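Sample 3 of the quickstart, ligand zinc ion:
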Amino acid sequence: MIKYFSALLIGFGSIGLVKAQNDSTAESIREIYNLALNEQQGYKWLGELCGLGPRFAGSEQATSSLLYFKAKLDSMGFKTSLQAVKVPHWVRGSQEKAWIVEGIDETEMAITALGGSIATPAGGLQAQVVEIPSFEALDTLDLEGKIAFYNIPMDPTYINTGFAYGSAVKQRWGGTIEAAKKGAIGVVIRSLSSSINKYPHTGSMRYAPDVKKIPSGALSTYDAELLHRSLKENPDLLVKFQINSEWLDSNYSYNLIADLPGSERPEEIILVSGHIDSWELGTGAHDDGAGSMHALESLHLLKKLNYPIKRTLRLVWYMNEEFGLSGAKVYARNAKNMEMRHVIAMESDGGGFTPKGISMQTSPEMVERIKGYRKLLEPYGIYQFSSGGSGADIGQLQSDDIVLIGLRPDSHRYFEVHHSALDTFESVNPREFTMGSATLASLIWLLDRDNVCFNCGG
Ligand SMILES: [Zn+2]
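Result:
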């Protein structure tokens, strides 16, 4: 009986303790969001970054933007270092044009070269065009001597537009090879945009070593629709397009690494990251200036609040996610060689829209454990905790001993701006963006305090 009562008392006592801990944890998180929303410091940095111009890997601008912020981080007390990364050097030309040609009538269309495409002949490339409405249809079509027109829209029924993008992106990265195998002389694709607009969206494409290289560009969705309708009326119309991109010798740039050493377990690293390179049609505000600044601001918030952090907090700005992930590959290789102990890696590469949750790549037990944070983060609109992909850059670090986490912002508007001239600072909302930084900071705070063995293989 005494035993029973004392057990009951201990039980009640520990419930009280847990509640008090939860209350103080909730208060700490509230402080993170308060500071973030009052300051909006990351948004200001994002404005500064975008003001420096686009940051296409291989360009001088990409490296100089990185170095500009390195100096800033040095003055903020981060321990910074640079990691050399070999980057391809492809330059988009200024002469990007396309037309529908019917007799003497020419209707202009908006086009941009896909990243990595060779140029057309100087006067442009003109031929009959074959529309490809699906990947399956490709087998039955004769493309010999023709311009292939991939017109495969992003499926609008996906709620997460990332999946719609994933289902249609093959036309961009693999479509040119397949068309060239069938004798096509050029490729135009429908831009991977979730809306109909007049802005073409670029992105990387590939060639295969044993397949003829042919030029490829993306038409705006508005013009892809126009071409589709025009072909219905006149299947014999011609398309003419001109792009004058060129390949130069590879360059070197850097990943930026910035550490805040941990107080108890400095050898264990919590990495938080974005990619600093961008496409050059806009200024890469959402992709991935926002993610880069989410990562920086999250560490800034914890530092400014003076929260005790046991492990080393590491900011990584990867170079060249867009054009081959070379920065992430160099970082992961080096981390392995140096036997670095990464316990958690986070990435924000889904834009600066309202965050809704996270996607985790880790053991089912750890997923369940992190789902336990939901109650603390729900007041801030963070309620989606799912297993799945985390991010392309941190994915290179995948092992049994690491928890990979990708921030998941609302995706409905992301692919309207993604890889296009619309991806500018003006398209980022300060409050929506700032919620992302505070969410990452809160997760870091919770994970670092969680009494769990991260390197115990599950
Ligand atoms: Zn990105």
